[in-house]
């Protein structure tokens, strides 16, 4: 039987599924991720790991962890691990596709609506005693219905955003690494270059994975192309937008606001300049945080671990070791 490390308490039946098959499960009970030395030690002492986006797993850690056979990330993104480096030392890496797109799009939509219609700012104001009268001019914002939404990255989550936009009668522009004419047509999306999308959109929502190509995809040049009335929504990864450029754009009024579920770094220090803007909403990377979805993600990660421990390929592998490690 194998030893499995779970880097945080997770919802649902993941730990139980692993224990039911006779595996020993150790859970890191801290609220914060295990520090690098504790993580390295746990990887070295276990055969499999169920990890979170906040766990940075280096190639050196995996190389030193000679028993480790799979790192099953409880996320669709896996920029916290280098899958190629893991494969080169015989370690599988898996993710959790297909189960979180709708929940994440729900949240991105909530951020878009909240930023447009001043929901967070007005709530803050009423709590502080600012509600003195009904005002014809307080908290005016742009309409969402009928506006133009620019979707950067037409993967599962971007597509789920396009479906929501249809209900609001929006024009939807999309840009993605590879054209998907059938998907675009069925969702009523107009393909556009990134620059054209940025120029024409009232709301720009980011849905790309973090890769070398998408790091700082939205920099000062891109922000300067956006409408001064536009709002940027980011539920992808913080570094997809150049945060210093974003601060500058907000300071100078180049764009009207931003709603960010992801930042760089995470957590964002409370004295960060982004927190000084009333027209910015910042949430702590919770777009997939519904009871059902987080439980499904954890269970799916456990399923990937069980597959490897039972001598099968993980169904959601994102790499392919030429010589997968066996149990020692
Ligand atoms: C969350 O950020 C994920 O990648 O699932």
Tell me what the structure shows.
- The protein has 328 residues and is an alpha/beta fold.
- It has two domains: 3-99 and 290-309, Rossmann fold, CATH 3.40.50; 101-282, NAD(P)-binding Rossmann-like Domain (Rossmann fold), CATH 3.40.50.
- 35% of the residues lie in helices and 14% in strands.
- The chain has twelve helices and twelve strands.
- It has a seven-stranded parallel sheet, sandwiched between helices. It has a five-stranded parallel sheet with strand order 2-1-3-4-5, sandwiched between helices.
- Helix 7 links the parallel strand 6 and strand 7 (171-175).
- The protein is globular.
- The model has no long low-confidence stretch (mean pLDDT 97).
- The chain binds glyoxylic acid (GLV).
- The site of glyoxylic acid has 6 residues, from loops.
In helices, the fraction of residues equals 25-40%
Number of helices: 12
Q: Helix-strand pattern, N to C?
A: EHEHEHEHEHHEHEHEHEHEHEEH
What topology, given as strand order, has the largest sheet?
8-7-6-9-10-11-12
Would you tell me the structural class of the helices and strands? Answer: alpha/beta
Question: Briefly, what CATH class of the largest domain?
Answer: Alpha Beta
| N-to-C CA distance | 11 Å
* Rg of Cα set: 21 Å
User: β content, as a range?
Assistant: 5-15%
Calculate the mean pLDDT score and round it: 97
Give me the CATH fold name of the largest domain: Rossmann fold
Q: How many beta strands in the DSSP annotation?
A: 12
- General form: globular
Q: Looking at this structure, what is the CATH superfamily of the largest domain?
A: NAD(P)-binding Rossmann-like Domain
Ranges with pLDDT <50 over ≥5 residues?
none
Q: Main β-sheet, in a few words?
A: 7 strands, parallel
Q: What is the level-2 CATH architecture name of the largest domain?
A: 3-Layer(aba) Sandwich
